[in-house]
Structures are given as structure tokens and as C-alpha cells.
Amino acid sequence: MEHLVQTLVDAVSVGSLYALTALGIGLIFGVMRLINFAHGELITFAAYALLALVGLPVPVMLFGAMVVAVALALITERAAFRPLRNADPTTLLISSFAVSFFLQKLLILVVGSRLKGLDFLPALGRQIEVMGVRLQLLQIATILVSAVLLVALTWFLRSTRLGLQMRAAAEDFRMARVLGVRANRVIAMAFALSGVLAAAVSCLIVVQTGVVQPRMGLQLVVIAFVGTVIGGLGSLTGAALGGFLVGAASILLQALLPPDLRVFREAFVFVAVALVLLFRPQGLIPARGLKERI
Amino acid sequence: MNASVPLLDVSGLVVRYGAVTAVRGVDLAIGEGEIVSIVGPNGAGKTSLVSAIAGIVPPAAGRIVFAGKSLAGIVLEDVVAQGIALVPEGRHIFASLTVTENLLLGATVRPDAEGVRADLDRSFDMFPILGARRRQPAGQLSGGEQQQLAIARALLSRPRLLMLDEPSLGLAPTVVDQVYGLLGTVREGGVTILLIEQNAERVFGLADRVHVMSGGEFGLSGTAAEIMADRRFDAAYFGVHMHETASDR
Amino acid sequence: MAPVDVAKARNHGILPRLWPLVALLAIVAVIALCASFAPIVLQRRATQGLINLIAVVGLYVFVGNSGVLSFGNVAFMAVGAYVSALLTMKPTAKAVFLPELPGLIAHAEWPSLPGALAGGGAAAVVAFLVGLPLMRLSGVSASIATFAVLVVVYIVLGNWTAVTGGQNSLMGLPAYVDLWTALGWALAAIIIAFAYQETRSALQLRASREDEAAAQATGVDVVRHRLIAFVISAFLSGIAGVLLAHFLGIVRVENFYLDLTFLVVAMLIIGGRGSLTGAVAGAVVIAVLTELLRQIEIGVQIGKTTIGAPPGVGDVILALIMLLIILFRPNGLAGGRELTWPFGRGPSQRAIRNDSSGNPV
């Protein structure tokens, strides 16, 4: 029984992480139809920012990570994606792939490709007892942070002017502009928000693994991509749900699969994703306004 | 009625999409308070003309002057602040947003929150069905209701010129009557209207002046009564160029 | 155009129509020939370049014709490499690295050509199975799905220790790939790619590239044509993987993941993803570039010191070039065009010039 609860909490915790990552990707896809491979690099760079700021008070480290992620997001938007704003989706995808690799290789050039250890917020590694079940404090923290960010993002999108403009732009970009919504502002906001989400994910990952390496973002993002596709491209709820399901499924499979098959769990998840897409190619919660011509 | 300087003054407008010329040198003047209509078949260039005025497509040549100010080089997002609002073909309401949210987006460029709230209430008075459904997602509205929403949304920017591209498209005749009735009320509120339609008969009761557009150019122009009586209307509508001779009159 | 005229134009235009193929084959053959006179180190690099060329051509067959970017072709390279390795390795070597291998494979020792074909064939089969659900997705979703294929294959091959050795390298493969073998396969790949893209299926697929809705409305079965392209593309990629494995003499799953994916995609984008000429151009340009960058990284010796760029600069520069191409010349160096017949008008150009009754002018 205890094991079951632990597994469930673990699943929710990991699922939340992937949900946050998928949200960051989904935000940008919504306004720009761009799948941002470079989102992984936002996570990686935020982690290296933590590394660089080691020794400073924790709030400063967290703030530094966020600033780095947001700045990098805005720079990539301005330099690489704005010129391509009207390009076809495949060109956008290629450019984000190129940006991602450029940033990754640049980072490797500067800091080397070996992983580095980082003992961040070790207190979160403690175990606590909740209703008789032993859980990791980090898992609770992950779930809480994710919930807070989700609520904050939802509030922002639903209750602020800019949030409304973003939602409109995501559904019908040109009509939004006809009404006076500023394209640059809305897109920059989406990138900035994705940076914030990336920083949060980065900090949580660093606490969990204690390791910083140039590939860490990419690994996360690969799985999150798949989650976004299964959730339904263009729908934020879909992205979060898809990311959550993929992450949670990975943990549940780890618990349920026989030992020799456990290493293949991600493969199983992806196969399940393929099956879902077979029956529902537009995803679980497809976006309205993702226009079907004809 | 008509001020000596037209509210909208378009001269020599040319619009191209790649190798295709959709608008071939059009002159259009609309006086303040008028309802001007442009009618013509599919592909005549009506939407391209309106898109150019609204700033969606850049003109290849020609001038667009609104309220004495040239619109050349103005970015799409800034046009609505100049006082021009567009209800595009197909309405383009935001289906996933509520009726109220759609309306609020119409007021994007307005800084006065109080005024916007007042106008919102006024919209619900003028379009009671929208008031009844104010919290519903706009995608759940019927075609006619969506058209009303699109018009109300455009009005929320307090435009001086309201342009409507084929508002009767896809709507039942009784619904179209309703919409056109509303447009009359809108004009009474002091808004100048440019009305694009395929269905020419409809506009004759509402428009002050009518231009018949075909093949990217204006053919016949005149008051609604003049056009209705003119035997050359069919030819002009379908793009056969007729040369006016004394014997035709 | 009247049917008779079409036939006339076709017959007159046979050389201009084949010109892109002939030119590309000639260029590649000449480069290989030049390399054969160079020191052995350069020959090996040329061989690697030819293998990369096959990989890019393989990717092009799908991407160029369908307009959908695939990140999964390196997975097919991996499948090809492992299948060929397993079939052609000496049983004694297999016993060392893969003691748990099922008997039939453990004792197999195939000659290189059947092994290579089996590798390509296995990749094609995987592509077929994977492509059945995948090809129904729209462009970007399909691309992400191919990315997932890459990851899945990586995970499976990397953890199926009994069959593949997992994360460990498989060594002792017969290293039969020399410059001429690679050249032979490269020429074959170009011919296959060219022959495919002249088929009706490929033509219809390219039509869907521009406007999927319109193509479907006219009855084009986009999914089927995409699948065909995907399978052929996988076969060629599989062959490239086979050759890579038998060139290096080892197979490591790590070699068939993101870095190689980036390299192959970069070559295609830089050369131009819309034409076979672009694919070949990309391979050639990158081969030259990597050689230059390698020299820069090795550095220049001035007196006792060596001034060179830090390792890893090459990757950054490659990524930067890819970005610049996408920003300023999105159709790549070849611009989506094939090499054109330099003498006189080709049949397509001739077809345009007709008088009003449809007779060629």
C-alpha cells in the first residue's frame, strides 16, 4: 500500500515536471506555430546559471537562473525566430533545431561536455512522513511548485489583458493583429513565460539529479515534445495534459513492468503515444482554431 | 452630410499577390456619415481592396488617405487606432473565447477602461442576444449571432469607419435583414460604413452610393437608385466592359 | 499539348532530363577518383564523406519529396548497422560480445553484400511498420513523431543487451568498406533516389507538398505516397548505417543518435532540401568544411607553439552556418533546383513554348 502511494506520488511529481516543460513548448507553439527545440537549452542554461552562482543565497541563485532563461528565450526570439515569423512550420522547426544545437555546442565549447555535480537545496532530498507514507520532500515540492505555476499561468491568461491577447493570438493571429494586438509583444511574452517555466523545471531537475550537463535539457524536451503532440498541438491544456500523462506513464511503467523490461519503459510510452495518434491524430485535446482548411 | 473632404480617400490603388493583380487602380472616396457599398462577383478584388485599406496587405501602388492622414507604411496593428475597424469575411470571431472576451478584444487599442465598460453595456443593449450569451464561448453562437458579435466587436474600438466584408455570407435572409437593420442604427450613431457584398440587391435599400467592381476595377458607380435602373448593371457586374455611347442613355 | 508532341518532346529531351543524374554521378565519381590519389588519411575521410552522402540522399528522398522533416533516419542507419553487424560478424567475435545471442544469428556469417542488403531491408521494414501510423499525421506532428522514433530505437538498441550489446561497442566487424565500395553504393543511392523521384508516386507526393488539401481533393493518396518515400528513404539510410559500421569496424548505439542526426539534417538543409542536387551539394560542402575545420582545430605550428581553435568549434560553426542558411537562404545552396542542362532547352522548357493550337513552337 505504501509502495502504491509512493509510486503514485512519484508519477504525479514527474508528470508535473513534464507538464511544465510541455507548457513552455505549448505557449510558443500557440502564438507562433513553432516547436521550440531550444526550450531544452533554456533548461540547460538555467542549470549552468545555478552552477555559476553557487555560494550565493538561494533566492539569488533562483533569480539568476530565471533571468538567464528568460533572457536567452528573448534573445533567440529576436535573433532567430522573428525573421522567420511567416515561414512555413517545417522551416521553423528546422531553425529551432539549429538554434538548439548551436546553443548546446556553444555551451560545450565554453564549459566542456562533462557533467558537473551541483548540490542544490539538499534539504529537499529529505524524506518526510505524510499520513504514514514516506515521501521525498522534493516530490512534494515539485508538485506544489508545478501547481502554483499552473495556477499563476492560468490566472495570467484568463484575467489579464495581455493574457487575453495571447489567447486570441494563439487562435487567430492575424485577426488579433487586425484588432490592434501587437504581435511582437504577445510573442515576446510567450517566450518570456516559457523562460520562467524552463527555469523552474531546471531548478527542480538539478535538485533531483544533483548533476548539470549540456544534454540535460534536450533529454527532457524530447519526451515533452511527444507529450505536446499527444495532448494536441496548439492547446495549452492539451500540452500540459499530454506532458503529464507521458511523464506519469513512464513512472507507472517502471513500477509495473517486469525488471528486465524496465529500461525500455520510455519506448513503451512512445509506442502507446503512437497508438493514441493512430486513433486520434489531432491529439487528445485539439486546439480550436488550428485551422482545417476545407 | 458629406464634408467637403472625404473621410476616406483612396486613389490609384493597386494590389498584387505575386503575379496576380487583384486591384487595378481604384479610386474610392467616402464621405463622413455615408454608407458606401462595393458589389461584385467572387474574385472581383473587393476583399483585396478592403484588406489594403485595413493594412493587411501592402498596396503595390496608390494612396490611401484617412481623415486627412496618409496610411502609407502604417503597420497592421496601428490601423484600428486610426479609426478604421474591419469585420472581415468569415467573421473571424475567437471561438474559444467568451462573447465578452471577444468584445473586449475589440477595445484592445483603447486606454479608457471606464469608457470600454460603458460601451460593453451599450453593446449588450444594442445586441441583446449577445448580452444573453455574454459568458458563453463564441463558438457556440449561431452564424447570425456571430455576425452580430463581429460587428459589435468592431464597434468597440469606436471607429469612424466600419468596413464589413460580405456580412450576409452564409446567413438566412431574415437574419440578414436583422443585421442590415443594425447597420442602419450604427450609421445613425455617426459611424461611416463601407459595405462589401456579392448580393447586390440587398445593399440597394441601405447604401447611399454603390460601386460595381469586377476584375479589379470599378465599373459602374452611382447612387443606389441610379445603379438599380441602369441597364448596364449586369454587364458591369460580370465584367464585360461597356463603352458608354449616347444611344445607350 | 497533343499526345504526339509530348512523345516527341520526351524523346528529344532524354539527355536533358537525365542530366541532373549524370552530372551528379560524374561529380561524385570524379571527387572519389581524385581522393584515390591522395594519402590514405584523406582517402578515409573521403570514404566517410561518401557514406555521409548516402545518408543525406536517404534523408532527402523522404524530406525533399514529402516536405516533412524526418529526424528518424539516423535510427534507420542504426538498424541497418546492427543487423548487418550481427549477420556478418564472425561467430567467434559474436560469442565474445554477445554471448546471449539466439543460435541462428550467433552462428551466421554472411558475406558483406547480403548483409548490407539485409541491413537496408530491415530498416525498410521498421520504417514501414512505424510509418503506417506516422504518415497520417500532419507535417509538424509527423516530424516530432519521427523524433520519437529516433529516441525509441536508441533506447531499444541501447538496452537490448542480449542482442546488441547495449551501450557497449560491438567490435570486430569485417571492415570491408573502402573508397571504391563507398563510391559504388553512393552512385547506386543517387540513381535510386533519382529514379524514385521521377515516378508518378513521387510526383504526386511533391504535389501534396505545396498544398496538401488540394492534393487530397484531387484524389491523391498522400499517406500511401508518403509511406513509399519513407520506406525507400529508410532503405538508403540503412545502407548508410551498414557502410558506416563496416567502415569503422565497430558499432556503438551512441554514434547513431543526436549528433549524427544533426549532421545529416544540417547537410541536407545547407545543400538544399528540395532537390537531389541539394542533397549531394550539402554532403560535398560539409565534407570540405569539416576538413577545413579539422585543420583549424589541429592548428598551425609557429615555432614551438601551436595556434589552433579549441575542439568543438567545428560543431558551433556548423550550427551557425545552418542557422544562417535557414535565415537568409532557406532553400539551401541548391535553392531547390536540380542541375540544369547547360546546352539548349530541356523538354520542360520546350513544353512551355506552344502556339495557341498547342503545337510546339
Report on this model:
- The complex is a heterotrimer of chains A (about 290), B (about 250) and C (about 350).
- Chain A has eleven helices and four strands, in the order H-H-H-H-E-E-E-H-H-H-H-E-H-H-H.
- By secondary structure, chain A is mainly alpha-helical.
- In chain A, strand 2 and strand 3 (about 135) form a beta hairpin.
- Chain A has helices at about 1-30, 40-50, 60-80, 90-110, 135-160, 160-170, 175-180, 185-210, 215-230, 235-255, 265-280, and strands at about 115, 125-130, 135, 210.
- Helix content of chain A is about 70%, strand content about 5%.
- Chain A has a two-stranded antiparallel sheet.
- Residues about 290-294 of chain A have low confidence and may be disordered.
- Chain B is α/β, with parallel strands linked by helices and about 250 residues long.
- In chain B, strands 6-7-8-3-9-10 form a six-stranded mixed β-sheet, sandwiched between helices. In chain B, strands 2-1-4-5 form a four-stranded antiparallel β-sheet, covered by helices on one side.
- The two termini of chain B are about 30 Å apart.
- Residues about 240-249 of chain B have low confidence and may be disordered.
- Chain C has about 350 residues and is mostly helical.
- Chain C has a domain at about 15-260.
- Chain C is about 70% helix and about 5% strand.
- In chain C, the strands form two sheets. Chain C has a two-stranded antiparallel sheet. A two-stranded antiparallel ribbon of chain C has the order 3-4.
- In chain C, helix 10 packs antiparallel against helix 13 and helix 11 crosses helix 13.
- Chains in contact: A-B, A-C.
- The interface between A and C is large, with 46 and 43 residues.
